[in-house]
Write a structure and sequence with these properties.
Number of strands: 18
Largest sheet: 9 strands, mixed
Helix content: 25-40%
Number of domains: 2
CATH superfamily of the largest domain: Metal-dependent hydrolases
Radius of gyration: 21 Å
CATH topology of the largest domain: TIM Barrel
Strand content: 15-25%
Number of helices: 15
Shape: globular
Length: 427
Amino acid sequence: MLLQNIRFLVTQNPEREVLEEVDLRISRGEITEIADLKPQEEEDVLDCAGKVVMPGLINAHTHASMSLLRGISDNKELEDWLQDDIFPAEEAMDEEDLKTGAELACIEMLETGTTTFNDMYEGIDRIVEAVESSGIRAVLSRGLFDWDDRGEERFEEAKEAVEKYSDHGLVYPAIAPHAVYSCSEDLLVRAKNYSEGRGVPYHIHVSETEKENRDHRAEHGVSPVNYLDDNELLDSDVVAAHAAWLSEEDLNLLAEKEANVAHNPSANLKLGSGIADVPEMLQEGVNVALGTDGPASNNNFNLFEEMKVAGLVHKLEDPGRIDEQQVLDMATINGAQALGMEDEIGSVETGKKADLLVLELDDPEMRPYHGVKGLLSNLVFSYTGHPEKVLVNGEVVVENGEVTGLDRDRVLSESQERSERFERSEK
């Protein structure tokens, strides 16, 4: 396939180049050439005149099947929200719920420009079905905790998923202990040993709330980050979701051990959990990716919207603390690095997977643009995420703004029907 006459190509390469009036060739799912190119015999040609082409976005922290729980509980802090409303609803979810919720999530993510997501939940096989049908790329992990007698069972399920999907193509397995407060030290350590042995990411909630930090210090004498380090669990394979309450020592440890943070500003704001000091993290050299969390706490999977929130919330005290390029990095190449996939996705470069967005430049949200910096500003602060086409592995998975691999009407109808037994909590 040849993408011809691209008006702006936002590469996100190491030089962060934005190329103008250029062509891009895809072969066997990879980007093979970026230059002034001529169509080859019988080659599919996509005219991108007046279009912006950029890397697909990477959602570094999700709970996809929680799509069915969108809007069932608002106006509560995290602990009450989980204990009173979310956990009981999750207990009532069956495998078909998990699949339908994941299908809805895949549609929403693809249609708003996400081509890879990093998910922590249960029912991995059903989520894989949604991934395969939609064509999205996914890092999947069975969430682990052992506060009841099913801890070992969950761990075995997680290991089975890693073995089963280690050579899948679209699915990349991971290991995901839920949090330090929900997992024993033994489970945290065994999960890390296993993830290291299999070479997969270690995905965990860390320091999401002030209460979590306070309670953990009271019980263990140290912060959750310090606790992980004391147990030799911090390294470049770690994706620490939220990290909203970090001390200077915590920051230094994350930077020293090259651990990654998945920043979720919308969910943290909505639950009143606090906001991670991302500019400080970036200054200290911590790799920060961007996530949405689940739609029960966000309430959507739109990473373009998340970029805007991330860009704005850190400007409150100083508008120069973070800029549009840093925010775009968080949603693309930083996310790829967090997942250990920076050689495959996250930027538009030869040899990488052809995970691409094609956006209409003649869109009111994109006009006017004032040079390259203005174009990036529009992408981060004004564009609401409705690409004309989305490609994953060089295959068109969104055409004219709608997903191609799933029956959209069916999923929307089933999602509504299945969600109706989950009662909304009123406060």
